[in-house]
Design goal:
Elements (H helix, E strand, L loop, with lengths): L9 E2 H28 L9 H27 E4 L4 E4 L8 H21 L4 H25 L3 H4 L8 H28 L5 H26 L10 H38 L9 H5 L1
Antiparallel strand pairs: 1-3, 2-3
Helix pairs in contact: 1-2, 1-8, 2-3, 2-8, 3-4, 3-8, 4-6, 6-7, 7-8
This protein binds retinal.
Retinal (RET) binds next to helix 3, helix 4, helix 6, helix 7 and helix 8.
């Protein structure tokens, strides 16, 4: 089943705002890629992984958002008489590309988080497996659920129950993921120098707040009263846009700063350059 956007006709401004949001996001990620690549040398070798991961996230997101932009362009056609955009016969817009992007980026961002928290060895592996597995499960469950959008929004016959069941399971996995990630921050942040700890706390808060937004955006087609409104399609895509830029680029910038501050402290000889206390402990 195609996403619920395909069943609506959009006013000129609604369509344009969404188109611009897609191009804005793709451009931010392409520009951020250059920034992460060019500032990588500011950290010592041990901390460069976080820049490399941000670069991977930027490439995948630029491609996926670029595809969304192209699809949005071809899926709707302008009618000058009514000044609206209606779906082009034979074409569809698929929000599923976002899920493909998250499937790459969620495990990447969680890996980045563990790396900057200085986990190594067995402690890293244990947390990494739990976090990436639950991250992937969360995305895949939501991916299945979004196929029920037309039913739950009332455009097609059917109860839309699948939307709530798969989405509900995804929410449960999400809460488990947050629980495990919270445990990792608590255990890992003490190994950071004081001037990096505040930034790490900021990155964690940012992660929680922005990741919740994706879950809320998922629900929009299921909310009666707003689920057949073009305005809410705009709101939903703008929520995704904001969450994307903050959870990928701003999050990456905060972790890069943590890495740079750690590197400086090590270079100044204030802390050791060993493998971190967790490797030693295990
Ligand atoms: C879904 C389905 C409904 C329930 C929840 C979801 C959560 C999605 C999240 C996505 C995060 C994406 C990120 C991408 C960055 O590149 C799958 C929408 C809770 C948390 C961080």
């Amino acid at each position: 089943m195609p996403n619920y956007e395909n069943f609506l006709t959009f006013e000129y401004w609604q369509y344009e705002v969404i188109r611009h949001a897609f191009s804005f996001t793709a451009a931010v990620f392409a520009a951020s890629l250059v920034y992460f690549a060019m500032t990588m040398h500011e950290a010592t070798a041990k901390y460069r992984t976080t820049f490399a991961i941000s670069a991977v996230v930027m490439v995948s997101a630029t491609i996926e958002l670029g595809l969304l932009y192209l699809m949005w362009n071809s899926a709707f056609v302008y009618d000058a008489a009514t000044m609206t955009y209606a779906r082009t016969e034979g074409e569809i817009f698929a929000n599923g590309y976002r899920y493909a992007n998250w499937l790459i980026d969620v495990p990447m961002l969680l890996t980045q988080f563990l790396v900057v928290l200085q986990f190594t060895g067995a402690a890293f592996r244990r947390r990494w497996i739990t976090l990436t597995a639950s991250g992937a499960a969360m995305i895949l469950l939501g991916y299945v659920g979004q196929y029920y959008e037309p039913q739950v929004a009332g455009f097609v016959e059917g109860s839309g129950l699948g939307f709530w069941i798969w989405g509900g399971l995804s929410w449960l996995v999400f809460f488990y993921l947050l629980y495990v990630a919270n445990d990792a921050v608590r255990a890992g942040r003490d190994s950071l120098v004081p001037e990096a700890r505040g930034l790490m706390n900021g990155a964690w808060t940012l992660l929680v707040v922005t990741w919740f937004m994706y879950g809320f955006a998922y629900m929009v087609p299921g909310v009666p009263g707003i689920n057949q409104s073009g305005d809410w399609v705009v709101v939903r895509q703008l929520i995704y846009t904001f969450a994307d830029v903050t959870s990928k680029t701003v999050f990456g910038l905060l972790l890069a700063q943590v890495a740079i501050r750690q590197s400086r402290a090590e270079q100044a000889g204030r802390i050791g350059t060993g493998e971190g206390r967790y490797a030693a402990a295990e």
